[in-house]
């Protein structure tokens, strides 16, 4: 008789401990971002070269209003699922660069960084939190700001913003890959 009442209690304790071990908002098992914890120097050099070359092509007054990458909060303040959502949105914007000026020299320069960022974007898609995950208020506000900018800002301004802040995107990618506190 004692065994019959002990079994449900044991199941309850095991179920609760397993539930705590595997949080509901955990990232998908097929997700692996560890390769972005420390970015390869030749990839960073290619991104730097692209950014520098783009800077030389920019007119001094673009008339852009978007301040998408100027946030009052740091990526480290977000939960890991929110970091993944942030970086995925940033990479979506950043990989939309092919519409940039048809300068053949710049087209050559941005091929390698674009391939790297596109690969990171594909990896992030495998890491997206469950659809039931609700982003924090900070992230939700930023995502709304991004959507509004996409609808109102000229494409050239969005592209310039993405390229000029590409190292912030890479820093956010690294932070999402760490899955712990980052700076």
From TrEMBL:
Signal sequence, start to end: 1-21
Subcellular location: Secreted
Key words, A-Z: Antiviral defense, Cytokine, Secreted, Signal
Gene Ontology biological-process annotations: cell surface receptor signaling pathway via JAK-STAT; defense response to virus; innate immune response; positive regulation of immune response
Gene Ontology CC terms, in alphabetical order: extracellular space
Entry GO MF terms: cytokine activity
InterPro entries xrefs: IFN-lambda_sf, INF_lambda
Entry annotated with the keyword Signal: yes
Entry's family note: Belongs to the lambda interferon family.
Record PANTHER family: INTERFERON LAMBDA-2-RELATED, INTERLEUKIN-28 AND 29
Protein's name according to its UniProt entry: IFNL3 protein
Lineage: Eukaryota, Metazoa, Chordata, Craniata, Vertebrata
Gene: Ifnl3
């Amino acid at each position: 008789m004692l065994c019959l009442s002990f079994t449900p209690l044991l199941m309850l304790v095991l179920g609760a401990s397993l539930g705590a071990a595997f949080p509901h908002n955990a990232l998908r098992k097929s997700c692996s971002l560890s390769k972005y914890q420390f970015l390869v120097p030749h990839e960073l050099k290619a991104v730097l070269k692209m950014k520098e070359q783009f800077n030389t092509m920019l007119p001094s007054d673009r008339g852009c209003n978007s301040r998408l990458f100027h946030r009052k909060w740091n990526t480290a303040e977000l939960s890991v699922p929110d970091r993944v959502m942030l970086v995925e949105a940033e990479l979506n914007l950043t990989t939309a660069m092919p519409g940039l000026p048809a300068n053949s020299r710049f087209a050559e320069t941005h091929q390698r960084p674009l391939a790297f960022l596109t690969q990171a974007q594909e990896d992030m898609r495998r890491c997206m939190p469950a659809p039931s995950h609700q982003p924090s208020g900070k992230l939700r506000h930023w995502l709304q700001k991004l959507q509004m900018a996409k609808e109102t800002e000229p494409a050239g301004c969005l592209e310039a913003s993405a390229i000029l802040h590409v190292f912030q995107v890479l820093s956010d990618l690294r932070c999402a890959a760490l899955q712990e506190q980052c700076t």
